[in-house]
Design a protein that fits this description.
The structure holds three protein chains of three kinds. By secondary structure, chain A is an all-alpha fold. Chain A has helices at residues 5-36, 43-61, 64-87, 95-117, 141-162, 164-175, 177-182, 187-209, 219-234, 239-256, 262-279; strands spanning 131-134, 137-140. Chain A has one domain (5-155, 191-279). In chain A, 73% of the residues lie in helices and 3% in strands. In chain A, strand 1 and strand 2 form a beta hairpin. Chain B is mainly α. Chain B contains 14 helices and four strands. Chain B has helices spanning 6-26, 29-55, 62-79, 85-107, 112-132, 134-137, 162-185, 187-197, 199-205, 209-235, 245-258, 264-284, 289-302, 306-316; strands at 143-144, 150-152, 156-158, 237-238. In chain B, a hairpin with a 3-residue loop joins strand 2 and strand 3. The radius of gyration of chain B is 19 Å and the shape is globular. The two termini of chain B are 16 Å apart. Chain C is α/β, with parallel strands linked by helices. Chain C is built from ten helices and ten strands. Chain C has a six-stranded mixed beta sheet, with helices on both faces. In chain C, strands 2-1-4-5 form a four-stranded antiparallel beta sheet, with helices on one face. The longest helix of chain C has 16 residues, at 180-195. The two termini of chain C are 23 Å apart. The chains are: A mainly alpha, B mainly alpha, C alpha/beta. Chain A binds chain B through residues 39, 86, 89-90, 93-97, 99-101, 103-105, 107-108, 110-112, 114-115, 221, 225, 228-229, 232, 236, 261, 263-264, 266-267, 270, 273-274, 277-278, 281, and chain B through 58, 60, 106-107, 109-110, 112-114, 116-118, 120-122, 124-125, 128-129, 131-132, 245-246, 249, 252-253, 256, 286-287, 289-290, 292-294, 296-297, 300-301, 304.
Chain lengths: 290, 317, 247
C-alpha cells in the first residue's frame, strides 16, 4: 500500500493533537513524581472522572468551556482530598507503597464511576463544529483548538513554575524538600497544591479529549499506560522531557496507524520504550536539569 | 517461624494440608471450587512474593506470565490430539518462561518504581499482542477447550473432576511452596535477600546482581505460569482479561494484604481477598471492588506488614 | 554542668532541655541540654559523630526527638514543623550547604524572603542589604546555585538563612572544605551577625575559629553535653578541649 505525503501530513497533525493532550496529562504526573516521589497510578482515573464531570456540567449548563473549568476545579479538589487522606501518611516511606495505594485508589475510582454512571459510554459534543479542508479531508477545527488549549495550559504551568513565589517554592521543594522546609517554605501546603494542580490538569485533559472518544469508566486505563511510557521515556520527573516524549510517541503511533490498527500501533511506543531502556535508561530526553 | 521448634511448624503444616485435602469432600460444590481457585491465585501470589518479599522488586507484570501459562496450555490442548495434560503444562511453562525471560532482560536494568512500571508496561505488550492477534488467540473472546485426562501411561487414567483437580492443584501448590521455601533458604535465596537489603553492597562483594535478578524473575515467572496453566484447566478457557495489568495489581494486593516475604502470607492474602469479594459482592454486586479497594488502601497505610505480620505482632504482645 | 550558667536570665533566646533522639535503632542524643542568649555566639564542639549536627537538626525540627524540650523565646516549639520554626526566626545553614542547585542565586535568597507580612519595600531593602554584605553574590545573582564555587555556596547558604531575618542562626561546620582565606570571611560574617544581634549556634571542627568567635562553648561527647565553659576558662586550661577534641 502506497502512503501519500498528504496522509503522512494528516497523521502529523493528528499525532500533535493527541500528543499535546498526552503531554498535559503526563506533565501533571511527572510534576507530582518530581516533587514528592509519588507515582500516581490513579492519574488515569482522574482523567476519566474529569471527563465525567465535563459530561455532567455540559448536560446541566450546556457550556463546554464551563465544563472544562468545572472539571479542572473539581478534580483539583479531589486530588487535594486524595493527597491529604491517602498519600500524605505515606510520604517518606518507600515510593513503592505510593504505587500500591494509588493502585487501590484507581480500583475504587474506576468502580465508583461504573456504579455512578453505568457501563454505557457517554459523549461530549464538540464545542466547535467547524471544519477546514486539510488536503482531501474535512478536518475539524476542534482538534486544532484542543492542541492549542493544551499547549496554552502547559505554557501557563511553565510560567507559573518559572516566575513568582509559588514557582520558586515548588522548584525548591522538588530539589530539596528538607532544606525547603528549613527555609520556612510551607512544604505540606506546597505538596498538596502540586497534587491538586497535577490532578486538575488531568481532569481538564479528560474534558478536552472527551469529544474525540467515548467517555467510560475504563478510559483511564489506556491513558495511564501511555503516560507511564511517556514519563519513563522522557525521564521520570523531567517535565520538559515528558512533554517532548509525549509528542514524539504520539507522532510515532499516528504514523504507525497508517499501516496497522490503532490498537496495534501502541506496540510502536513499547518499542521506543525498549530502545530507551537499552540505550538511555535515564530517559531519552534526560538533561542535566529538571 | 524459624525461632519456633521445627516440629511445631511441620505439625501445623500437616494439619493445614490435611484440612485442604479433606475440604472438597465436605464443602458444598461452590465453596470447594472457590477453594481450588484460592489455591491457584495463592500460587500466583506466592510466585510474586519471591520478587517482592525476598528480592525487593515489586513486579506489576505477573499477569503476563500467568496469561502466557494460560494461553500456552490452551495452545497445547487445541493443537495436539488427543489433548495431553503434560504437554499443556510444558507449553504453558515454556510460554511463561519466554515472557519472563523477555521482561527480565529489560526490566532488571531498573530498580524500585522504575522496575515496577517497566514490568507493567512490558506485560502489556503481551496483552496487546494477544488482544489484537485474533486469528491465533481468539482476540477479545479468548479460547475455550476441554479439560484433558490426567493420564500416566501404564499407571493412571483419570478424569479431572473438580475434586480430582483440587487435589492435583493442592499437590502442585504444596510442592511449589516447599520448593520456593527451599529456594529462599538456599545460598541463592540468601543472595536475593542481600540484594533486597543492600544492592550496592551485594554487588561490591562480587555477586553478579543482574544475573541473580534475571534468574529470580524467571523463576517467579515459571511459578506464575504454572498457576496460569491450572487456572486454564479449571475454567477451560484462556482470555485476554487475565493478561491485563489489573491482574498483576491484584497479585501485588494479595502479597501486601497477606504479608510479603512469608510465602504463606500471599496465599492468605489471596484467600482473604477472594472471600471478601465473595462476601461483599452479595451486598455490592459488581461494585465490590470499591470496599475492597478501601480496605486495601487502609492496609497499605496502617498495616504495611500485612495480615500475617499483624497477627504475628499481635500474638507476640 | 549547669547548662544555664553564663546566659543572663531573661535574655534567654533558645533553651534545649534533655533531648534524646534515635536514628533507626541507634541512640544518637542522650539528653542534650543547652541555653543560648539573645545575640550570643555559642560554640558546640566535639568529635565526629557525637551528635552535634543532630542537635541542630532537632532544634530546626528536621529530626524528631523522642524526649526532651525545646523552647524558643520561652515558647515550646517541640511540636512545630520546621517551616513554622523558620518563620519564628531560626535560620539553618546545614553541613554541605544544601543550596538549591537549579535555582538562581536570587531565587535561592527568595526562598527565605518571600513570606507573608513583609512589604515589597522591606523585601527589596533586605535583598539589597544582603547583596551589600556579599558582593560576590551580586555578580552571580542570575546564575544557578549549583554553578557557584564551594566558598560562594557557603556565602549563599548563610545569606539565604539571613533572609528570614532570624533571631538565631544554626551554623553547621561553615568552614568545612573551605580555603583558609575563606575561613577569615566566615569569622567576619559571624561578627556582623553578632553586631545585628543575631545569635549563632556554631558547630565546628575548627577550634581556633570557635574560640575566637564564641563567648561560651559546649563540649559534646556520646550525645551528651560533658562540659560547658566560657572561652576564657577554656583558654586558661587547654587540656579540657584536648580531652574532648583529641587534638
Amino acid at each position: 500500500m502506497a502512503i501519500s505525503l498528504q496522509q503522512i501530513l494528516i497523521q502529523t497533525v493528528n499525532g500533535v493533537v493527541t500528543g499535546m493532550i498526552l503531554a498535559l496529562v503526563a506533565s501533571g504526573l511527572t510534576l507530582i513524581f518530581g516533587i514528592m516521589d509519588i507515582v500516581n497510578f490513579a492519574h488515569g482515573e482522574l482523567f476519566m472522572l474529569g471527563a465525567y464531570v465535563g459530561v455532567l456540567t455540559l448536560a446541566a449548563a450546556g457550556s463546554f468551556w464551563l465544563a472544562l473549568l468545572s472539571a479542572m476545579v473539581a478534580i483539583a479538589l479531589l486530588g487535594a482530598l486524595i493527597y491529604v487522606t491517602t498519600l500524605r501518611p505515606l510520604l517518606g516511606r518507600d515510593p513503592l507503597t505510593t504505587i500500591l495505594a494509588t493502585f487501590g485508589l484507581s480500583l475504587i475510582l474506576q468502580n465508583y464511576a461504573l456504579w455512578q454512571f453505568g457501563p454505557v459510554a457517554r459523549k461530549i459534543a464538540e464545542p466547535i463544529s467547524g471544519h477546514f479542508t486539510l488536503f482531501y479531508l474535512d478536518y475539524p477545527w476542534y482538534r486544532v483548538v484542543i492542541a492549542l488549549i493544551a499547549g496554552a495550559m502547559i505554557f501557563a504551568l511553565w510560567m507559573f513554575l518559572k516566575f513568582g513565589t509559588w514557582g520558586i517554592w515548588i522548584r525548591a521543594t522538588t530539589q530539596d524538600r528538607v532544606m525547603a522546609q528549613a527555609m520556612g517554605i510551607p512544604v505540606p501546603l506546597v505538596l498538596a497544591t502540586v497534587f491538586a494542580i497535577g490532578s486538575g490538569m488531568a481532569g481538564a485533559s479528560g474534558v478536552l479529549f472527551g469529544p474525540l472518544t467515548a467517555v467510560d469508566h475504563a478510559m483511564g486505563l489506556d491513558w495511564i499506560l501511555k503516560v507511564f511510557i511517556v514519563v519513563v521515556v522522557g525521564g521520570m520527573g523531567n517535565l520538559a522531557g515528558s512533554i517532548v516524549a509525549a509528542i514524539f510517541i504520539s507522532l510515532l503511533e499516528a504514523y504507525a496507524s497508517l499501516w496497522v490498527s490503532p490498537a496495534q500501533a501502541v506496540i510502536v511506543s513499547f518499542v521506543v520504550l525498549i530502545l530507551t531502556l537499552l540505550f538511555r535508561p535515564t530517559g531519552l530526553f534526560a538533561t542535566a536539569t529538571r | 517461624m524459624s525461632r519456633r521448634p521445627a516440629s511445631i511448624y511441620w505439625i501445623g503444616f500437616s494439619i493445614v494440608v490435611a484440612a485442604l485435602i479433606a475440604a472438597p469432600l465436605v464443602l458444598p460444590t461452590f465453596w470447594a471450587r472457590l477453594l481450588t481457585e484460592i489455591l491457584i491465585w495463592g500460587l500466583l501470589a506466592m510466585s510474586s512474593d519471591l520478587l517482592i518479599g525476598y528480592t525487593g522488586m515489586v513486579s506489576f507484570g505477573h499477569s503476563a506470565f500467568f496469561g502466557l501459562g494460560m494461553y500456552g496450555a490452551a495452545a497445547a490442548l487445541l493443537t495436539v490430539s488427543p489433548p495431553n495434560l503434560w504437554l499443556a503444562l510444558a507449553y504453558g511453562l515454556l510460554g511463561a518462561a519466554a515472557a519472563a525471560g523477555f521482561v527480565a532482560y529489560f526490566s532488571t536494568r531498573l530498580r524500585d518504581i522504575y522496575f515496577a512500571i517497566t514490568t507493567l508496561i512490558f506485560s502489556q505488550i503481551f496483552y496487546v499482542i494477544i488482544f489484537t492477534w485474533t486469528a491465533v488467540t481468539g482476540g477479545e473472546n479468548g479460547l475455550t477447550f476441554e479439560r484433558p485426562l490426567l493420564a500416566v501411561p501404564g499407571l493412571i487414567r483419570l478424569h479431572l473432576t473438580p475434586t480430582n483437580l483440587h487435589w492435583f492443584v493442592l499437590a502442585v501448590v504444596v510442592g511449589s511452596y516447599l520448593l520456593l521455601r527451599r529456594i529462599t533458604q538456599s545460598p541463592f535465596g540468601m543472595v536475593l535477600q542481600s540484594i533486597r537489603e543492600n544492592e550496592a553492597r551485594t554487588r561490591a562483594i562480587g555477586y553478579p546482581v543482574e544475573r541473580y535478578k534475571i534468574v529470580a524473575v524467571m523463576l517467579s515467572g515459571l511459578f506464575a505460569g504454572l498457576a496460569g496453566v491450572f487456572y486454564a484447566l479449571q475454567n477451560e478457557f484462556a482470555a485476554p482479561d487475565f493478561v491485563f495489568f489489573i491482574v498483576s495489581g491484584e497479585t501485588v494486593i494479595y502479597n501486601v494484604v497477606g504479608g510479603i516475604g512469608t510465602l504463606v502470607g500471599p496465599i492468605v492474602g489471596a484467600a482473604f481477598f477472594l472471600l471478601l469479594r465473595e462476601g461483599l459482592s452479595r451486598f455490592f454486586t459488581e461494585f465490590y471492588l470499591i470496599p475492597v479497594g478501601v480496605i486495601f488502601v487502609a492496609m497499605v497505610i496502617f498495616m504495611p506488614q500485612g495480615l500475617l505480620g499483624f497477627m504475628r505482632r499481635w500474638l507476640n504482645q | 554542668m549547669n547548662p544555664g550558667s553564663g546566659a543572663a536570665p531573661g535574655a534567654v533566646l533558645l533553651e534545649v532541655d534533655g533531648l534524646h533522639s534515635f536514628y533507626g535503632k541507634s541512640h544518637i542524643l542522650h539528653g542534650v541540654s543547652l541555653v543560648i542568649g539573645r545575640g550570643e555566639v555559642v560554640g558546640l564542639l566535639g568529635r565526629n559523630g557525637v551528635g552535634k549536627s543532630t542537635t541542630l537538626k532537632a532544634i530546626m525540627g528536621l529530626v524528631q526527638p523522642s524526649e526532651g524540650q525545646i523552647a524558643f523565646e520561652a515558647q515550646p516549639i517541640i511540636g512545630l514543623p520546621a517551616h513554622r520554626r523558620a518563620r519564628l526566626g531560626i535560620g539553618y545553614v546545614p553541613e554541605e550547604r544544601r543550596i538549591f542547585r537549579f535555582l538562581t542565586v536570587t531565587e535561592n535568597l527568595r526562598t527565605g524572603l518571600d513570606r507573608h507580612g513583609v512589604s515589597k519595600q522591606r523585601k527589596k531593602a533586605l535583598l539589597e542589604k544582603i547583596y551589600e554584605f556579599f558582593p560576590v553574590l551580586v555578580e552571580r545573582r542570575n546564575q544557578a546555585g549549583g554553578t557557584l564555587s564551594g566558598g560562594e555556596q557557603q556565602m549563599l547558604a548563610i545569606a539565604r538563612a539571613m533572609m528570614l531575618e532570624p533571631k538565631i542562626i544554626l551554623l553547621d561546620e561553615p568552614t568545612e572544605g573551605l580555603m583558609p582565606r575563606m575561613v577569615g570571611q566566615i569569622r567576619e560574617i559571624i561578627s556582623v551577625l553578632q553586631a545585628e544581634n543575631v545569635a549563632v549556634l556554631l558547630v565546628e571542627q575548627n577550634v581556633p575559629l570557635t574560640l575566637e568567635a564564641a563567648s561560651r562553648i559546649y563540649l559534646l561527647e556520646k550525645g551528651m553535653v560533658r562540659h560547658h565553659a566560657t572561652v576564657a576558662e577554656l583558654r586558661a586550661d587547654h587540656s579540657i578541649i584536648q580531652q574532648y577534641m583529641g587534638v
